[in-house]
Batch of 2 targets.
Target 1
Amino acid sequence: MRKIVNGCSTRFEGWGDDIVRFLEPTDGYMLARFNHRGDDHVSVWSMNEYLQKVDLLVNAVGNYRGDRIFGVDEAIAALEISASGAWNLQLLELKDLPTLSEGRSQFVGDTVIRATTAAEPSEVAYLATFDVRSDEHVAVHAYALQGGLLVNDIGPYRGTVVVPAGSQLLTVDAAGPWELSVERGPASPVVPVPTRSIEAPDVGTATGLAAELEKLRDLRDAGVLSEAEFEEAKRRVISKY
């Protein structure tokens, strides 16, 4: 059983069954890349603080490589790995993910894609055409302000769906190689908010610009806001004065 430090890009390697535990339950979603080499079944379950299974993240036979998201709806305290061979697990940051871009892109296996280059939901919708050649299950989810289940089918699959404005992440569950063609849609009235729903303070109060900026600095110093979120919230406050 291995313990890991929350919030860090951490890599672990192992063989066979194991439990990877967090020092504290997750606060918000997390991203992980999992690799397995072996001929038999491999599975990865997320688990809550009572070590009850929450979501089946990986369920495959043989070699596997994929990116997964967990902790979206419930705090996660551990990952349970059942494997017949060697495996490695790496926690990811947003910058480690591919970004949704116009044109055609090729991928392999389960993938998590950023809807924008920023840490905020997209301001536009996209038309996304998925071409999956595998005859196994295919699913696409969008996460953030809007979204949900976009594709749920058995391959081979080819179809075009709308990735709604307000999406931040796409998860694609697909075996083997697949292609994605993207066309940008019109701008939307959806107003993105920071990833952890931290909004800029109300600048209509009598506290003034200096006081509002001081509040933002306090949130940043307390770790509530990342540096990027602080800069974005500061920009919004200043623009309204």
Target 2
Amino acid sequence: MLCFVTAKDRLFNDVVMDMKREEIKFPGTMANAEISRYMLALVDTLWYLDGTKEKIQRRALNQSGSITRIPERFMNNYNGYNDYKRKKIKAPQLDSASLKTHVACLQTLMEQKFVSLWGDYGKDLEHLAVSMSEYAQFLDLSSKAQQDRQSLPHPVRQLAENVQVLHFNRGPKKTMYSLIEDLVNTKDFYEPIIFDECLHAASPFKNRTEAAPLS
């Protein structure tokens, strides 16, 4: 009888093997069904993050202090299982609601007393949950800011934080362009002007360089 192993099954098995290698154990008195529930919570989280962890990590690097970095244990491992390219689907998108759901499941595991015996593994689990929670908060704030901009009577384009406007005094008006400039000042916006060098220039242009400002 053939047994079909899915990519998520492989992820589950690899997580179990890594935990055994580091001697991460559940209490011997705990029922198998309960252990499976906790393991599935962890595997489901890693499956959800597969292919999208880089987004959280980049944001954590760009906003140092506001978002916790994903621990190397989970950042450098458990990748390529949820292969959206092979399945020919769009790249997965992180959303606040899903992140919070997975964080809640991880917290249920971390609230268990035996996790305190897991040492660095337990701390990395906590940091992973914190990172996901902070990124969910970032998505919420970004969404609210976008909604606020769109609710304005005249929505504005988002500008970079360091953009500044510089004001310069108007320079002296060149005599050869004075007639055309005076004419432009009498016209409304987008009102066309048919330029006639004999009428609108102080004297005929000697070369293309003099005519360039009007081209």
